[in-house]
UniProtKB/TrEMBL annotation:
InterPro entries: AAA+_ATPase, ABC_SmlMolc_Importer, ABC_transporter-like_ATP-bd, ABC_transporter-like_CS, P-loop_NTPase. The keyword Nucleotide-binding applies. GO terms for molecular function: ATP binding; ATP hydrolysis activity. Residues 2-236 form the ABC transporter domain. It holds the Pfam family ABC_tran. Keywords: ATP-binding, Nucleotide-binding, Transport. The keyword Heme does not apply. Coiled coil: none annotated. This is ABC transporter related protein. The lineage of its organism: Bacteria, Bacillati, Bacillota, Bacilli, Bacillales.
Length: 352
């Protein structure tokens, strides 16, 4: 069966109005945006924990919410699983009791068998009698996931599932959780995060949120490499966004000027473009004999070294600043013979 979730809801919030419309199918979709942009509220409305002011929610042809027709299906009847940011485990229940919580209406022997299987699935065999406070953050997360999956939902909602974990544990748990989901769940997964790196590693498609609306959606590679406007570019983490003075659409390229400097772009045309963008990782330093497009002189302003990479801030042609990211070992090779290169196929046009 093809799983389809259709959402078209509105809800007045403190600083803006949630006004979101989308349709998603099976797979992992990331809802990405800054804190307070309406991501978690969207999940809560889908789950039935919050009621929209207007609109509708439909799952596989079944209406879960419709303001006009006064339809509101209770959360427990929606076939939607929700893993909360803080996991929301019951502190007075053991691991097996927490996992079994959603199966109260089933026969005792069936519950016992399902719980045993699920504990094995999430690799917590031997922890059945442990209480949440006796578990690590990663183990608590697996209990929360098991408690959700055991109810056989059609949609799985993950609200910032890795934000409470230490960096070292987080990397391991990301892959572990996604492995468990992909091996045991065939439906829709909506994953809320404000971490672009995390979203890119885990998700198939993106929805970018800003003040309660979706500013762009699609396959992650397309959204990341071709953000539509300045807001989308900021959400996906583009470090260099430059205002253009003029745009000239040629047959195969687009020529722009930024602070009087001509820059060529080998990307699809955007007739309302007001800016161009390029990721710091795509900015290159080349030898002075490179005569390709967009090779410029520069002045080094600042070098900020991290553990493995350095952020390099330069002024291009005495006109505008650009940030580049290069491996630390290459910093020593920057010299007066270098030029900075903005590869034409890595640049993209942005609407305001």
């Amino acid at each position: 069966m093809v799983t389809i979730l259709k959402v078209a809801i509105q809800k007045s919030l403190q600083h803006f109005k949630l006004n979101t419309t989308f349709e998603v199918h099976a797979g992992i979709t990331g809802i990405i945006g800054p804190s307070g942009s309406g991501k978690s509220i969207t999940l809560q409305c889908i789950a039935g924990l919050q009621k929209p002011d207007s609109g509708s929610i439909n799952l596989n042809g079944v209406t879960l919410f419709d303001k006009n027709n006064r339809i509101f299906v209770k959360p427990k009847d929606r076939k939607i699983g929700y893993v909360f940011q803080n996991y929301a485990l019951f502190p007075h229940l053991t691991v097996e009791q927490n996992i079994a919580y959603g199966l109260k209406s089933e026969r005792k022997n069936d519950i016992k068998s399902k719980v045993k299987t699920m504990i094995h699935t999430v690799q917590l065999t031997g922890y059945e009698k442990y209480y949440p406070h006796q578990l690590s953050g990663g183990q608590q997360q697996r209990v929360a996931l098991a408690r959700t999956l055991i109810t056989d939902p059609e949609v799985l909602l993950l609200d910032e599932p890795f934000s409470a974990l230490d960096h070292q544990v987080k990397q391991i748990m990301e892959q572990e959780v996604i492995r468990i989901i992909k091996e045991n769940f065939q439906g829709i997964v909506l994953l809320v995060t404000h971490n672009m790196e995390e979203a890119y590693r885990l998700c198939d498609t993106f929805m970018l949120y800003h003040e309660g609306t979706i500013v762009q959606s699609g396959h992650k590679d397309h959204v990341f490499k071709q953000p539509r406007n300045v807001i989308a570019a900021n959400i996906v983490g583009c470090q260099n966004i430059l205002k253009v003075d003029s745009v000239n659409h040629l047959q195969n390229n687009v020529d722009c000027t930024v602070s009087g400097v001509k820059i060529r772009i080998a990307k699809p045309k955007a007739y309302n473009a007001k800016y161009i963008g390029i990721y710091a990782e795509d900015v290159l330093f080349v030898n002075s004999d490179d005569h390709d497009d967009n090779v410029f002189s520069y002045q080094l302003l600042e070098t900020i070294k991290g553990i493995h990479h350095a952020n390099i801030i330069v002024v291009v042609e005495d006109s505008f600043k650009i940030q580049a990211t290069i491996p630390n070992e290459k910093v020593a090779f920057l010299n007066d013979n270098n030029r900075v290169k903005l590869p034409s196929h890595q640049l993209f046009l942005l609407e305001e």
